[in-house]
Amino acid sequence: MFIPGNEVAKNLEGVNEEQIQPAGVDLTVDAIWEMDSSGELDFSNKSRKIPKGRELDFESPIHLNPGGYLVRYGEKISIPKDCVGMVLPRSSLMRMGATLVSALWDPGYTGRGKGLLIITNPHGIDLHPNARIGQMTFFRGDAKGTYEGSYQNEE
To answer: Which domains are delineated in the chain?
Structure first.
């Protein structure tokens, strides 16, 4: 069962009334990185290597060409222990030829979080600081345990 947006908002810092939607809360983009190296992933995470990327100047609107970009959300999010979180792209983002990819957010995770902005529009898109790009929604469940990974409390 999904949790209504006004309830989701109670678990996010830095949200205003305009961001609250019937089934979730709009997330804004706070920072953008362009990938500048390869990554590495294995079963145990012993060899895991996350590219640092090159942070783009985002003080004013920016034009992003087709490709993939790491984005950080402007809101600090705390997933309740009886929920999982999912971020979906806003339909306006998809209608301009871009989408947002996110992994499942485990119960107990707290942090600002990141997503992968993928632009397929051959002309690119223009993105303004604090643009609403995704929507966080919670689903209540019966999870056993909480998130204890290396991304806990990420900024």
So the answer is: 5-140 (2.70.40.10)
